Amino acid sequence: MSIYSIILAAGEGKRMKSKTAKPLQKVCGKALMEWVLDATNEAGAERNIAVIGHMAEEVKEFMGDKVEYTYQLQRLGTGHAVMQGIEPIKNEKGTVMILCGDTPLITGETLKKALSDHEEKGRVATVLTSIAPDPFGYGRVIRNGEDVAKIVEQKDATEEEKMVCEINSGMYFFDIEKLNFALSKLDNKNAQGEYYLTDTIEILINAGEKVGAFVVDFDDTLGVNDRVQLAQAEKIMNDRVVKKVMLEGVTVIDPSTTHISADAKIGMDTVLYPGTIIEGKTVIGEDCVIGPNIRITNCVIGDKNEIISSVLVDSTVGNNTSVGPFAYMRPNSKVGDKVKIGDFVEIKNATIDNGTKVAHLTYVGDADVGKNVNFGCGTVVVNYDGKNKHRTTIGDDVFIGCNTNLVSPVKVNDGAFTAAGSTITDEVPENALAIARAKQVNKTGWVKPKDRK
Ligand code: UD1
Ligand code: CA
């Protein structure tokens, strides 16, 4: 049996009050619609068709060819939206799942369970429902004994119907042929003057077809209409990601203050301290100690590293290295094994080879640094001349004295030393000591005894 999906995403999403199209709002670093698409793909969709309208071009540009598109130029209701979405597949045989682009918490697993139920019971339509703590605003599922009788929208519901807590999640499975039939019978005679997809349920029941409901967890059905719900979805999704990471062998000391992107991978026996934020496609190895108070974005970090109170972006760290506290690794920094990047150190677009120590108050930008180099406190790589950035090269086993300026482009060869306080502008030969500062002059007797306090 072929399975297809239609994802409704033409709505305006007014309540988000945003310049970004609602389906592209993010939860745990991933667009709402991407989450939905992950779920439909996991449930076995052969083709996914998005119905777009409001900010269609933005949605299309972001989602690319991961979905097919149909346009709904006038928003005349969810039934009207599905009339557009069904077009490319209306002559196919099989089942179509209908979902909304703003329900990121639905999972492939839940869809698969619902699909099995739909097939086993031999229904032509199954609506996914849940029990809402506060059903206000949702369509209510009205039952006749065990059977579903109809779905009534909030605005069309009687006082009695409004008491019902079983709500329509807005997700359904339909036999394509029967859906075509039901759509052809839709009208817009209701409180909102819209073509309601929900009316197809009653139409099919009246036509003597087998229709039913599959009850799922309310969390799975949470729709994101405003920033409050966006934060709720973020919380639930993050809890899921953190839980998964913990079950894979990562210690998370305080799950409530730990944020992990769904695309991140973290190795066994790594410990995450409170205030850890791991974003993007970050990979962290085993036996690391991360945090507290850290933000790591799109980094690849090896095993046995300790990273404390720092910010790392688009960078890599080897093994047995320590970073922080209060370090900033900016894009394209590559730090090797057994390296120390200490407090108040900034690294940018630089490679730091194995065994090197940059312990305190240092800036290393646009540089290639060799093995076992020691940076004294307060070193500055002077990479910018006001117009252009230049590169600095430092060999192996170099000792950079405290408060050295390395005016780029410049090279310090293997085994060389720079004296503290030097401003290095010329290449330093191998094993040499470069001293580039004024010689100390002591003016004896310069202070008159009567001037002393
Ligand atoms: C809809 C359901 C309601 C259900 C609720 C779940 C109907 C009539 N009502 O109500 O029973 O409880 O979802 O969240 O179906 N959309 C379009 N084009 C349109 C209208 C909507 O693409 O013309 C899309 C929206 O972008 C959104 C989805 O359909 O993704 C749902 O639309 P929305 O207006 O939020 O429906 P509700 O009134 O919440
Ligand atoms: Ca809605």
Average pLDDT over all residues: 97
Unique bound compounds: uridine-diphosphate-N-acetylglucosamine, calcium ion
Low confidence ranges: none
Shape, please?
elongated
CATH topology of the largest domain: Spore Coat Polysaccharide Biosynthesis Protein SpsA, Chain A
How would you sum up this structure, described in words?
It is a single chain. 19% of the residues lie in helices and 31% in strands. It is α/β, with parallel strands linked by helices and 453 residues long. It folds into two domains: 3-221, Spore Coat Polysaccharide Biosynthesis Protein SpsA, Chain A, CATH 3.90.550; 238-434, UDP N-Acetylglucosamine Acyltransferase, domain 1 (3 Solenoid), CATH 2.160.10. The protein has a 16-stranded parallel beta sheet that branches. A nine-stranded parallel beta sheet has the order 14-17-20-23-26-28-30-33-36, with no helix packed on it. The model has no long low-confidence stretch (mean pLDDT 97). The protein binds uridine-diphosphate-N-acetylglucosamine and calcium ion. Calcium ion is lined by residues 223, 225.
